Alanine--tRNA ligase
Amino acid sequence: KQYGVNELRKMFLEFFESKGHLAMKSFSLVPHNDNSLLLINSGMAPLKPYFTGQEIPPRNRVTTCQKCIRTGDIENVGKTARHGTFFEMLGNFSFGDYFKQDAIAWTWEFLTEVVGLDPDRLYPSVYLDDDEAFEIWEKEIGIPADRIFRFGKEDNFWEHGAGPCGPCSEVYYDRGEEYGCGKPGCTVGCDCDRYMEVWNDVFTQFESDGKGNYEELEHKNIDTGMGLERLAVVVQGVDSIFDVDTLQALRNKVCEFANVTYKESEETDVSIRLITDHIRSATFMISDGIMPTNEGRGYVLRRLIRRAARHGRLLGIQDGFLAKLCESVIEGSRDGYPELEEKRDFIIKVLAQEEDKFSKTIDQGLHILEEMMQEMKANNEKTLAGEHAFKLYDTYGFPLDLTKEILEEEGFNVDEEGFKASMEEQRQMARKARKVTNYMGADVTVYESIDPAITSRFVGYETLNHNSKIT
Ligand code: ATP
Ligand code: MG
Ligand code: MG
Ligand code: MG
């Protein structure tokens, strides 16, 4: 049977409720009391205080479907079948309650019995030394030993500095040869899209001191995560996360606005998928109260919107379209996230404003950048001067990352130090201007009211560079 995305979300939560879990609402994308993270990037992240014992969980078994943003995956978006900057992570959690045995058994039961995946296409992996997990898969679930993969730290050990950590076990689904890279040795764990990683069961059983010493925890925990969109890919048997029911509807809207057809050219398809993803991220971020700015989370949002706007241009869309597209995001996801519906007008307004701001300068900026690249080509230069990148930023609203990306597509790079220096210079000038005004006895706020960005902008960028880790 073909289950829809909204149905699968419900099925997961109900399954774990039937196993004694408390189903909790998704937490905001904005971390609460956690400076280590710019945006929530896993189901576990907002539950950290329960894992560390800082707070008492409402129940020792919890299940969620958590909205996540991973800007670290931004380069993959549109290019792989399985990565979005936005996705939903389904998870079941045990705080010192059940451990490996139940976690693995339920993972298997859900995948093979509840949603009915073919067991012969599923492959588990375990951490190198984790014989305990290996044996559960082999002896209790009945997977032949040669179908269970043992991987090293990079893939199968979950650790984040000091604190609770442990090995994990993942489940991959073989989508068939036609999705493979065709390279010799392509098998489970290959980075291509044939063996798609769907679920990660983390067994937090150690406390790490961050220096390589691990102590066995008295209360062991379970933290699992499965991408809802990826689950839908394998259940619905479609090509990519952009082909599952809800995302396909959105993708079709993108094609409609651009008057292009999907699957006619790879280059066009990348832009279509990228816009489909970025508008989802932007809609959800704004619904959680994030506004486009030049620092931190706001910068991530601005970068996503402007990147989508540029790809809209590549597809030939001239006027604002993101504010219209968000309707389709709301339509597809309001089932699980009623806040989207509640904030509809606000989301539209913010997107329209941001689009409007950028659309006034984007064409000019792109044209100027094009000229800069021509000149670099003529002079046999590889690196764009920092002051030029700064001009694009300051006058045309190009986030540095966007400039960098366009340059890289043509084999160029940018002098980032020079960019920062130009930024600093501007800042000093703004400061001086304020001092002079002050000295003359005038109200400095008058100056700010002319261009409020002048004073806030540069401070913001510094914050981004020094404090914020973009994940
Ligand atoms: P991959 O190796 O495919 O990048 P991952 O190992 O980084 O995935 P985890 O950190 O283990 O992913 O996250 C748990 C689950 O969340 C994954 O098994 C996958 O189903 C889902 N997931 C992770 N990143 C993304 C993404 N960018 N888009 C959609 N789903 C994702
Ligand atoms: Mg990843
Ligand atoms: Mg992985
Ligand atoms: Mg993983």
In short: Confidence is low (pLDDT under 50) at residues 441-471. Residues 244-360 form one domain. The first strand starts at residue 22 and ends at 24. The chain has three domains: 5-236, 244-360, 364-467.
